[in-house]
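Good morning,

Attaching, inline, the backbone tokens for the sequence recovery test we're adding to the shared suite. The designed sequence is right after.
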């Protein structure tokens, strides 16, 4: 099952992202607490800005940790046409020009992209409009993305 291989890639990518985020958070914390960044007057905000950055980096670390835990606990099930697309589905969509796009419907980590062989797979979550639109659908169904003049209809080609 290539879906298990895809899940392993997503987890490895999140682990790398976590390591980078931890280093960035540590650097930001060091900058925020460094003696050279102590405010000398009320207009000296370098220390305050570094503290805001450190707080943001720490939140990012926690978000990645939560996403990583969700993926490690994600059960991979084969596609069941009666239930339609659910969390953990690997979906191939095709537009009216025949261009295929691959998506993995995950619990979190939206926006993440991984390469499996020659294919790029984008991770989306059910909170994204496309993720919401896919839930419950099956092969041959259509899903719309965008709105107004930029609305496009995509056909669900394959689901694993």
């Amino acid at each position: 099952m290539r879906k298990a291989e895809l899940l392993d890639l997503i987890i490895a990518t999140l682990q790398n992202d976590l390591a980078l985020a931890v280093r960035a958070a540590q650097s930001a914390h060091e900058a925020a607490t460094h003696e050279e960044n102590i405010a000398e007057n009320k207009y000296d905000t370098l220390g305050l800005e570094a503290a805001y950055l450190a707080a943001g980096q720490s939140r990012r670390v926690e978000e990645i940790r939560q996403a990583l835990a969700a993926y490690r606990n994600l059960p991979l099930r084969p596609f069941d046409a009666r239930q339609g697309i659910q969390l953990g589905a690997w979906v191939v969509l095709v537009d009216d020009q025949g261009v295929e796009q691959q998506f993995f419907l995950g619990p979190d980590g939206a926006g993440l992209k991984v390469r499996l062989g020659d294919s790029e797979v984008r991770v989306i979550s059910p909170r994204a409009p496309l993720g919401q639109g896919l839930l419950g659908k099956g092969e041959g169904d259509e899903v719309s993305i965008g709105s107004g003049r930029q609305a496009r209809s995509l056909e669900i080609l394959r689901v694993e």
